[in-house]
Amino acid sequence: MNKKALIGIVIAVLIVGATLAAVIMSKPNQENTVYGPNTALGVVTIDGVIGGSTSLLGIPQNQNDPVKQIRQAMDDKTIKAVVVKINSPGGSAAKSEEIYNELLKLKKTGKKIIVSMGDYAASGGYMAACAGDIIVASPATLTGSIGVIMEYTNYEGLYKKLGLKEVIIKSGEYKDIGSPTRDLTPEEKEILQGVINDTFDQFIHIVSDGRKMSLDKVKTLANGRVFTGRQALKLGLVDKLGDFYDSVDIAAKEVGIKGKPQLKYYTTQSPFSTLFGGGENSNFDGSFIEILRLLFIDRNSLNFN
C-alpha cells in the first residue's frame, strides 16, 4: 500500500468517526427542557435547496424536512408563535408549495408565523415566506425571484462527435419529452410552456394572497429578478427589516411574552454542519469543510467512471 492510499484511508476513517460523533452530539435535548406557560417560541428552519440535495460524501444537506417541523409545531401546545428561518434560494415547485400550504394549516391553529429571512429567501423560499403574518428581512437579503424555470442540456452534438446514438422505445408520442439527445419539437415546447405558465399562475396567486397585493402589481414584480431586503420592503414584499433575533422579539411581542423567550427548535444540524459548518454548535472553522470538498468531491468527480 502506497503512502497516498494510506493517508486516504486514515482521512476516511476520521470522517466516519467524526460523523458518528456528530450524529450523537446533534440529537436534540428538548425533551429535557421544561417550557413555562407562554414563554416559548417555536423555530422552524428552511435551509438550502428546497426538495433536498446531497453534499459531501452523499450526506443529505437537509436532515429535517420543513414539513415535519411544521407538523411538530402544529401539535405543540406550549407555543403560540413560530419563527420560520428561511435561508434558501428555492428549489422544487411542488415541495415549496407543500411547505407553504402546511404553514397555512399552522396559521389556522391560531399560532402566529413570523418569517426571518437570512442571506436569501428567493423563488420557492419566497413562496414559503408568503404564509407568514409578518416577514422580516435583512437589508442585504436577496429575495423575490418570483418565477418558474425548466431547463436541460442538449448533448446531441456531443453524441454525434462520439458516434453515439440513443435508442428509445416509448409508449406515447411525448414520453421522451425533454430528452437531452435531441431538440424539442414545436409541439413539445408548447406543452412545457403550458406547464411553466400554470405553475407560474399558482405562484403569483400565492404571492397575491399572502401579501394582500393585487395580481397586476405582483405581475410587475414577477419577472424573475431578485431584490434586496431594503428594496423588497419598499415594494411590499416584506414587512420589516431586521435579523433573526429581531424576528424573535417581534414574535414574542405579538403573543405577549414578557422578557426573553425560550426558543424551541424543531430541527438539528446535520452532522457535518455541526462539526465543520460554522454554526452555533460548530467545533471547527467552516473552511475545513472546503478542504474536504477539494479532497473528496472535486477529486472524485475528475476520476468518476
CATH topology of the largest domain: 2-enoyl-CoA Hydratase, Chain A, domain 1
Q: Give the name of the CATH architecture of the largest domain.
A: Alpha-Beta Complex
Radius of gyration from the CA trace?
Answer: 23 Å
- Tell me the major beta sheet: 8 strands, mixed
Strand content: 5-15%
Number of strands: 8
Uncertain segments? 23-29, 54-62, 272-305
Could you tell me how far the N terminus lies from the C terminus, measured between alpha carbons in angstroms?
A: 22 Å
Number of helices: 11
Shape: globular
Question: Secondary-structure map with pairings?
Answer:
Layout: H1 3-25, E1 40-47, H2 66-75, E2 79-88, H3 93-108, E3 112-122, H4 124-129, E4 134-137, E5 142-144, H5 156-162, H6 186-211, H7 215-221, E6 226-228, H8 229-235, E7 240-241, H9 244-254, E8 262-265, H10 271-276, H11 287-302
Parallel strand pairs: 1-2, 1-8, 2-3, 3-4, 3-5, 4-7
Antiparallel strand pairs: 5-6
Helix pairs in contact: 2-3, 6-7
Task: List key phrases describing it.
305 residues; 2-enoyl-CoA Hydratase, Chain A, domain 1; 3 domains; 11 helices; 8 strands; disordered C terminus; 8-stranded mixed beta sheet; alpha/beta; peptide peptidase (sppa) fold
